[in-house]
Amino acid sequence: MRIEITCANRVGILSEIMDIFGEYRINVTSGELGGDSGDKVYLSAPGMLATQYQTIEKSLYKVPGVQRVRRIALIPSERRNFELDTLLRHVADPVLSVDREGRVVAANLAAARAFGVNLDRVPGLQLQRFLPLMQVAELLRDFTVPRYGLPVVVRGRSYRMDWAPIALADGGHCPGSQLEAVDSLAGAVLTMQPWGSGQPLAEQPRPAALWDFGERRQTCLQLQEMATLGSPLLIAGECGSGKSTFAAALHYLSPLGTSGGCYRCTPCEGRLQLPASLRAPATLILEDLHHTSAEAQVALVRNLWDLPREIRLVATCTTTDRLQPVLVQLFSSLALRLPPLRTMRPSLARFAAAIVREETAADGGADPLPIHEDVLPLLRIHDWPDNFNGLKDYLSVAVRRCRARGGDRVEPEDLPDLAVRAELPWRDWGRGLSYREMMEQVERALLTDLAAEQPSARKLAKRLGISHTAVANKLRKYGIFK
Known about the structure:
Elements: E1 2-7, H1 13-23, E2 30-34, E3 40-44, H2 50-61, E4 66-72, H3 76-89, E5 95-99, E6 104-107, H4 109-115, H5 136-141, E7 150-154, E8 157-167, E9 185-194, H6 216-226, E10 233-236, H7 243-253, H8 256-259, E11 261-265, E12 282-286, H9 294-305, E13 311-317, H10 325-330, E14 334-337, H11 348-362, H12 375-380, H13 387-404, H14 426-429, H15 435-453, H16 457-464, H17 468-477
Parallel strand pairs: 10-13, 10-14, 11-12, 12-13
Antiparallel strand pairs: 1-3, 1-4, 2-3, 5-6, 5-9, 7-8, 8-9
Helix pairs in contact: 11-13, 16-17
C-alpha cells in the first residue's frame, strides 16, 4: 500500500509520522518528499492491511500540520520508472545503457531481439560480445569520440548507433566543454537505428577514438567545438599525424552522422573527382589537397561552390603552400593543425598503450599486452617521421613477435631495429664552427626556447634533470635571465 500525506510544514513532522508507523509495527520500505509546493510525503508500506490503514489514518490526522492523508497507486518515482519502462518497451529501435566497463545495465525488448537473447538475460552482458570491434571503454574514456550515426553490424543487420554519456549528478560534466572529467561519467545510453537505403555501410569511414593525450587534448576539444558548425574546415598536419582520422571523427561528432553520409575524395593524377552518388545532407572529405594540381584546384572550387549548403566540406593537407589562393580562401574560416608525434614524447607511453590495445582487439585478444618499462625509452629517442602511421606499424610488428614467442608482455627483444635514422644537415649547418661552438649554439637555442616556457630557473632545472646552479650559470653565460 502507498500513502500520500499533505503537510502544512514538514519540519518536525516526519519523525512523528514515522513514530506512528513504528508504533503499529508497519514496515515502510521506501519514501520520498515532493509535491508541487514541496508539501507532500510519499510512503510505501507493502505489508499494510486496509484495517491498519484506517487506524493509522486517524492517528496521522492528529499530528499538527497534517492536512490530508490518502491512498495512491504509485509514488512519484515508481510512476516515472513505470512510464519510462513502458515508453522504452514500445520503442521500435534498440535502446540500451552500459556502464563504464561496457556491461549492459538495461535494455528494451527491441535491443534483446536485435542481440538474439531473452530480455532478462541482457543486463550484465558485455557489449563487445555483440560488437567485438567497438572499444566501449576507449569511447567512454575519450570525450572527442564518435557520437552520431556510428555504423555497426549486429547479427548481420546494419545499424546507425548514437550514444550519449551518462553524467553523475555531481560530476560537472558538460558535453563539449573543457570541464569534462572521466570520473564524471557513469556510462552511456546507446540508440540503434536500422541503416536506411542511403550510402552503403561499407563506404562509411571507420569511426575511431582520437586519443586526447598531451598536446592533442586541445586539438580534440577544438574539433568537438567545430563539429557542430557548418563552415568548411581545413585539417593540416604532417604525414601520419591523424588528419584522416580527425576528418572522419568530425562527421561522427556532428548531427550529420545520424542523417547523412560521409564521402571521401582522393587526388588521382593530380585531380579530385567528386563522387557521383554525393547527395545532401552529407560530409565531404577532400583528402591531400596539396597533391592536387593548380588547374584542378581552381576547377574544384567551381564545383564546390555549386554544392548544397547541407554538405559540410572538410579538407586535409600537409602544407598550405601548395594550395591556390582561391582554395585557401574557401577554407579560411576554420582550420585545425595537428601536432607531430615527436612533440608529444611525454605522452608516448599512453599512445603506445592505446595502439597495443587496438592491435590486441583486432586480433581477437581478450586482454591487451602490457609494455615493458624498458621499451618506452627506446620509443622516445626516435623522431617518428611518419608519426602515428610509423608507430602503429612498429608496434604491430612487436605485438606479433611477442605472440609468436608466447610472451605475456612486449619486451625490448620484440622491437624491430631502429638503427636507420634520419640524416640531419648538421655538417652543412656547422661548417666553419668548432665542435664547442656548435654545441654552444645548440645549447643557447634550446635554453632560450625552454626558458620562455618555464616560470623559474628551478622548474627549468627540474625539466632538464640538472642542478639549479648549473642552469643558473648557463642562463647567465648566454644572457638569458629568469
